[in-house]
Design brief:
The protein is mostly beta strands. Helix content is about 10%, strand content about 40%. The chain contains three helices and 13 strands, in the order H-E-H-E-E-E-E-E-E-E-H-E-E-E-E-E. It has helices spanning about 5-15, 25, 115-120; strands spanning about 20, 35-45, 50, 55, 60-65, 70-75, 80-90, 105-115, 120-125, 135-145, 150, 155-165, 190. Strand 9 and strand 10 form a beta hairpin. The protein starts with a helix and ends with a strand.
Amino acid sequence: MIISTLKVLELNKKYNLVENMDERELNNPEGVGIDIRAGKAYRLIGEGFLGVVDRKSSDTEKIADIDKGDKEILIKPGDYLLVKTMEKFNLPGEKVTVEEGEKPMYLSLHVYPRSTLQRCGIYLMATKTDPGYSGELTFALANLGGRQFKLELGARFANIVFMQVAGEISRAYEGQWKGGRVSTGGLEKQI
């Protein structure tokens, strides 16, 4: 079940689910999701590998960082970039009480593009986020349109929806991407 934005804001006070949330989302949320902002952008500069035991993500170079004063990125037709959020997420690894009197459940979040992206030919690639994850989120943006697209750093570019997870999980997320890491930085064993 989707958790309303007002309920997420209430739970955020108790569980610190989202750090550095935009004032608009804190004071005037819309619909059932929370918009999140672009903070850093990276270009892929190396080859990647995904094997049965080992993996190596493509190396990256940071091309824009809002913390360093960068203002925008230009995404040309055919470009593929990684974009990291300004917000940090803290999904509890244990069940939490969403509504008093109901059974506690795990929380997960799902990511959707803001519709302006698709209306401009920009494809957002994202994944679900498991209970136990903590850190910024990194998404891919690909320009599938025939025109350049400018994205201001700090702009709301994606929307997250918190969902309750029915049942048990075998273990909370302990993966190597925890903490908001963008690249493996070399060959590593998968856990």
